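User: Okay, second chain of the day. Same drill as before: sequence in, structure tokens out.
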Amino acid sequence: MAEYIFKMPDIGEGVTEAEIVTWHVKVGETVEEDAPICDAMTDKATVELTAPVAGKITSIGCADGEIMAIGAALVVFETDGEGTPAETPKKETVKPAPKKAAPKPAIKKETPKPVPATLSRGPNPSTKPLASPAVRKAALDADIDLSLVPASGKAGNITRADLKAYQEGGARTGGYAKLAGGMDIKVTGMRRVISERMSEAKRRIPHFTFVEQIDMTNLEELRTHLNKTRAEHQPKLTLIPFFARAIVKAAKLWPQCNATFDDDAGVITQHNAVHLGMAAQTPNGLMVPVLRHAESLDVWQTAIEIARLGEAAKTGSIAASELSGSTITLTSLGKLAGVTATPVINRPEVGILCPNKIIDTPVVKNGQVVVRKMMNFSSSFDHRVVDGFHAAEMINYIKDCLEHPATLFLD
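Assistant: Same drill. Structure tokens below.
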């Protein structure tokens, strides 16, 4: 018998750790080679890890929902074959002892005066908070922003006592109190990633929302006509491909809205291509598949690609590369869409657009009260990058395109 240690593999470029979402095996179980052992999730994709050898599992590295570093011992097997190859020890080289230099005259150094703990207390948004990995993990589990925690440790370090005091203080000033009969649900997997991304977007981005009302009557008539006359190989059209066309045309005129902002480096990148994020609800939570080069697709091609991405996202077969790299996002709840919304920007993008419910509404047109199909079109922008005036210009341009749908097909 031999012991084989299966270390957490590198499952993505630039990934240093992964969350073990689900274990498919347990200690004491015997598995065959290539049998699934667990699902590991990074911020890019979820990957099924399989057994590298056949054998009996003697230990596993963590519980469901815990983080494993790349290279850490994930599973230990008892096998009939060879164990984990031992690393070849490095040969120690004997270096000659350095020659002793003549002693230099001693220079009296002033002992720095210790900084009182009270001076290091309080958040400092301009620097990264200092804390041990254990304290950082505890703060992450409690969804606490360490930059808000007063520090009393040496050199401004945040201690466990500081974190506990902040938690207790929060509870006294409107924090959470567990009610009798309640249930704790650990935030893991995709829900944890969504939580972190949404929190980071709201912390970093000063959102502002702009809403415009659009008359969708003419576009709905066109969509109905195209669906009645479409060829057999053409998909049934929803409104989303038309929204995509309007966004593509607007992005050419307002490139500051089709952009990403690396606020750590202080660099705004305006993109020529429109890689349209399509926020979609799936059984595994919110995902944002990317419609790449939307500017090169007509409405039929856009509809086909949207259907493919949506199905892949729902079944979990979507590639990791199709979930990143968007330059602006379109989100919609479809039939559940309400009257208006305040969508959260998909960082590092600077804009997100959200069509709402279409409602038959009496309006005054050419001096007469008529019933039209009206829709509110919501949008949120990063106010550090996009001025309110330019956002209003862009949304009104999209309004004109949708109200006069023939212009969607003109370059």
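The mean pLDDT is 84.

User: Thanks, on to the next one.
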